[in-house]
Write a structure and sequence with these properties.
Elements (H helix, E strand, L loop, with lengths): L2 E5 L6 E5 L4 E5 L2 H7 L4 E7 L3 E5 L4 E4 L9 E5 L5 E6 L4 E5 L14 E2 L35
Parallel strand pairs: 3-10
Antiparallel strand pairs: 1-2, 2-5, 3-4, 4-9, 6-7, 7-8, 8-9
């Protein structure tokens, strides 16, 4: 499996991640919209041990790590503020912000999640499945004509 490089806007923080993502989605929740300043956050999920920081470790800031245990939070560059990845699932996984990847991953987002809270000024124009909240096993729970 090949490694993909990624970095923040200013280049101070760099990482490598295996091109072995398990899933990818476009998240429309309010937290992801605010963290990215965009209509949604395209992200890809992978086990945390498959991502490693290779530069600028001292420049990393974790927002939302309320207990200091590193089990959750959004990892940003302290200099430019770029959101690089989110630590999720009790610290075992990361959701890599796909816009920070320098190399193209094999996976593409294949669903929209948290469409029930999407930005009212944004219209989804693709045919990917849509979910009100987290994607769950089974059929999407939001028809294409809703949450558009």
């Amino acid at each position: 499996m090949r490694d993909l490089s990624g970095q923040c806007l200013c280049g101070a923080v760099r990482y490598l991640v295996a091109d072995g993502f398990s899933y990818a989605a476009n998240c429309h929740c309010g937290d992801c919209r605010r963290a990215t300043g965009s209509a949604f956050k395209p992200f890809a999920g992978i086990e945390r041990e498959l991502l490693r920081l290779v530069g600028g470790t001292a420049m990393v800031m974790v927002y939302g790590d309320t207990d200091g245990a590193g089990q959750a939070g959004d990892v940003h560059c302290r200099t430019c503020g770029s959101l690089l990845f989110s630590i999720v699932r009790d610290g075992a996984w990361v959701h890599v912000a796909m816009g920070t990847l320098t190399d193209a991953p094999s996976i593409r987002p294949d669903r929209h999640i948290f469409v029930a809270s999407k930005a009212p000024w944004y219209t989804i124009t693709d045919d990917l499945p849509r979910y009100r909240g987290h994607a769950v096993a089974g059929a999407p729970d939001m028809p294409a004509e809703q949450g558009g």
